[in-house]
């Protein structure tokens, strides 16, 4: 904990998040995994493979690695040489495929780490002069600031805007620049309450016929409860033991779960 306080001390822009973390550690320690067993079973019963999901969503399959082998090789080498360990790549085919399918020009993501999801989105967005808006809360105990997004090559960074704060501070700043998006990709605060707050905010900024993606939805009941409350019909994808939820904005009907 001392290391964390030192990390926050040199980052005044993160003081609000420090206050929230202190509160969570005192009063909401069980919130992170609330309803995990029920949520995981719910995901298991509904999950389909990535390839099937892409065909269902877009009518075709996408393989980011096969389409851009050199880009993937260079990015993998950068990750392997990075001195700070962060979250790795996940769902590149889904992010790239939906950007291509929607011909997206405005995409927002929460959580960057090495920048794999950012790389997939930017590779599509740059074809149309689009922009990716990213919020990222640094790993303050690991001092990873300079390595956030490290796998993104310079040629793609002109289409990228990074906001280095927690979602509650970063998202309002992003919305001042752009408040409508064709794709939302959520991969940041995975606590139960954190999800419920961010889901509502981001969903309201998603254009009709746009797509909402959330990662690791079996870690608690946040995603499950949110889709039930709002009568949304998600597609659940199983990928390497983890679960991803995808919802099309106009796909509204009574949930049958």
List the helices and strands and how they pair.
Blueprint: H1 2-9, H2 15-27, H3 36-46, H4 50-58, H5 64-67, H6 69-81, H7 92-102, E1 106-110, H8 116-125, E2 131-135, H9 154-157, E3 160-163, H10 167-177, E4 181-186, H11 192-203, E5 206-214, H12 222-229, E6 235-239, E7 242-248
Parallel strand pairs: 1-2, 1-4, 2-3, 4-5
Antiparallel strand pairs: 5-7, 6-7
Q: What does this molecule look like?
A:
There is one protein chain. With 257 residues, this protein is an alpha/beta fold. It has one domain: Vaccinia Virus protein VP39 (Rossmann fold, 3-Layer(aba) Sandwich). 44% of the residues lie in helices and 16% in strands. It contains twelve helices and seven strands. It has helices at 2-9, 15-27, 36-46, 50-58, 64-67, 69-81, 92-102, 116-125, 154-157, 167-177, 192-203, 222-229; strands at 106-110, 131-135, 160-163, 181-186, 206-214, 235-239, 242-248. A seven-stranded mixed β-sheet has the order 3-2-1-4-5-7-6, with helices on both faces. Helix 11 links the parallel strand 4 and strand 5 (206-214). Helix 7 packs parallel to helix 8. It is globular, with a radius of gyration of 18 Å.
List keywords for this structure.
257 residues, Rossmann fold, 7-stranded mixed β-sheet, disordered C terminus
Please sum up the structure shown.
This protein is of the alpha/beta class and 257 residues long. The chain has twelve helices and seven strands.
